[in-house]
Amino acid sequence: MAPPHVIVPFSGADPKTRLEPLLSAAERGRLARAMLSDVLAAVSGAGAESTVLATEPVDADLAERVIVDERPLSAAVNARLESEGPVAVVMADLALATPEALEGLFATDGEVVVAPGRGGGTNALVVRHPDFSVDYHGVSYLDHRERAREVGAVVETVDSFRLATDVDEPEDVVEVLVHGDGESRDALEGMGFEIAVRDGRVGVARR
Amino acid sequence: MAPPHVIVPFSGADPKTRLEPLLSAAERGRLARAMLSDVLAAVSGAGAESTVLATEPVDADLAERVIVDERPLSAAVNARLESEGPVAVVMADLALATPEALEGLFATDGEVVVAPGRGGGTNALVVRHPDFSVDYHGVSYLDHRERAREVGAVVETVDSFRLATDVDEPEDVVEVLVHGDGESRDALEGMGFEIAVRDGRVGVARR
Questions:
Q1: What fold does the segment set A5-168 form as a domain?
Q2: Residue B78 Cα, gap to closest chain A Cα (Å)
Q3: Which of A56, B5, B95, B154 is deepest in the core (most CB within 10 A)?
Q4: Is the predicted pLDDT of residue B160 greater than 80, yes or no?
């Protein structure tokens, strides 16, 4: 089975605001770009082609094309679902994504295949049913399963820690330092971050 | 390949103290017991037998036996590693563990197979090398990989969101309500917890 075409939504303006306690605006932008790069490299490594669906023009050498759509995430993704055949939608902040994890997603049968994220999110999706649409607001993992059932689509879930880990909050940064091996980890190390253990709990410190 | 015997360490006295902001001592005890039950059911569903390695006597119908060892976690587990053949060590707070996730762990080749937990932890392990020992303090995922290399053991990692999710902190409780379907979820619902979305972020509320 050929891998689906992959849409990677990317928000270029003031990204990753929840990382403000840890990073300046410029650093958040640098990390977001590094994570996008890592995701696109993993997609390519899994044998799939990608489209970056960006809120503003962005340089993404590893993608086949960039489409700029200023609408909110769900509206922009649904426009792509309507105009393309079967596609995958993979978030741009999955810094731990590997070709193997994505191959597992792509190889899972089902008309809608969901890789959940922490906190009820949907970090990656394969959509092979014409009537399915996304809504990333709220507990999107449950909403997407419900929506799939409503349109009569067979829904499956993929169990992957790497795909479940989106980098949104300061506590997520430690996952990149422990498990990452791409540009995102290099970027964080370049900014002086390292793993630190305090009172038996693992976090990050900055040199 | 027959599944390994599974050691499930369980701390019966004042468990899950990091959940104090959310739960009383009695409720933490109830949740801890429910999670142990769910883990033992998943182990049994994966075709494996289990030993609960408890700090004090505990009733665990689903386990083949209970061994009481008052020593700290790592010392108690290492005593079992020395006296048993190949074993798995699966934490008692993996409320999302399923037979399928554990089968994936057991079926992975390697003399040391690690299922990482959030925050650099080691949530489940298979040990098939006589010289390997555990140290759960600190960034145990990295330490266990390093220890495996030191003793010349082939080390593999298992990529599972269900095995990566241990229930330690208040934010972990939402994962049980979203993805759980066992006694842990029943216990939380019985205590009045439900999923709640505030400012676009998914958490829990209590009725």
A1: Spore Coat Polysaccharide Biosynthesis Protein SpsA; Chain A (3.90.550)
A2: 20
A3: B95
A4: yes
